[in-house]
Amino acid sequence: MVADVLWAHCTPADRVEHITVRTSVDSFCVVFFQLADSVESAESTAHSICLTAIGNSTFLHGWSLHRIRPTATDK
């Protein structure tokens, strides 16, 4: 459900290819796979999508974003 909410807040310009959500006892780990020109661009886009989803979704009401750890990979 969390991935669906995040997908609903993505646009084609975000260049998101896949979203994975893993759960733990008290948190969720969200991983975005994106086509981006830089790690900074990917981080900014993921951050924006998360904040928009948190701000607009009743399902995510009360949630917060704690940290982003970008990892760049080449295909």
Automatic annotation (TrEMBL):
Source organism superkingdom: Bacteria
Name of the protein = Uncharacterized protein
Origin organism is Solihabitans fulvus
